[in-house]
Amino acid sequence: MFRKQMDEAAGMIFVFKAPEHQEFWMKNTIIPLDMIFADSDGKIIGIVRNAEPFSEAIDAVDGDSQYVLEVNGGFCERHGVRPGDRFRFEGFVPQTAQ
Hints:
This protein is mainly beta. The chain has a 4-stranded antiparallel sheet with strand order 1-4-2-3, with no helix packed on it. The longest helix has 5 residues. The model has no long low-confidence stretch (mean pLDDT 95).
């Protein structure tokens, strides 16, 4: 939130304790983002592309997600990311806050 830019290889991962329907908004976000929603196995179940900055509209996909990765808007198109692909975590184990 409030970032004016983000490196192409950067992002923010949200890790939830269990899969459930996740909803986000862009109220305090200055740059457009792609939001990648994945299930507990890391399978991408849906993508919100180029979410609109400062919007209070709800951004979500059908189904239950345990992970949501936010990256620069257009990232998924530039890198061919699509539903059915999988997350692969390298160098860390995703955990929820205690």
